[in-house]
Design a protein that fits this description.
0% strand
Length: 117
């Protein structure tokens, strides 16, 4: 059942983003910023962690999950190191995901050749 809820939750987030792009004049870049910001706000208010516990990777992998990770890292950094930790904690909390994205993006660029249309 956990896989089903992850699929449904992640799919619902993606459907919401696609509907925003298709039915409004909001650009994909603005949707990205909106979803990351919403994840930060929901994480800071404590609403996103129960959603992650329910939906697993369906909630932690999309952009909302990245925003939540930024918020958790900043809150943890502020608790440990004060104001400076609030600025550095978000990057510390998301460093593994950012490093993985860079590594896999590099590997895709090396392994595959782009084709002209």
């Amino acid at each position: 059942m956990q896989y089903l809820w992850a699929f449904v939750a992640g799919g619902a987030i993606c459907v919401a983003a696609q509907l925003l792009v298709d039915l409004t004049s909001i650009t994909p870049g603005k949707v990205l910023v909106l979803f990351v910001s919403a994840g930060v706000v929901l994480g800071a208010l404590g609403f996103y962690q129960p959603f992650i516990e329910f939906a697993g990777a369906g909630a932690s992998v999309p952009l909302l999950g990245f925003g939540n990770s930024l918020a958790r890292g900043a809150i943890k950094g502020a608790a440990e190191n004060g104001v400076l930790g609030a600025f550095t904690g978000g990057m510390t909390g998301t460093a593994a995901g950012i490093a993985a994205a860079i590594l896999f993006g590099y590997l895709a660029a090396v392994l595959f050749q782009p084709k002209s249309k």
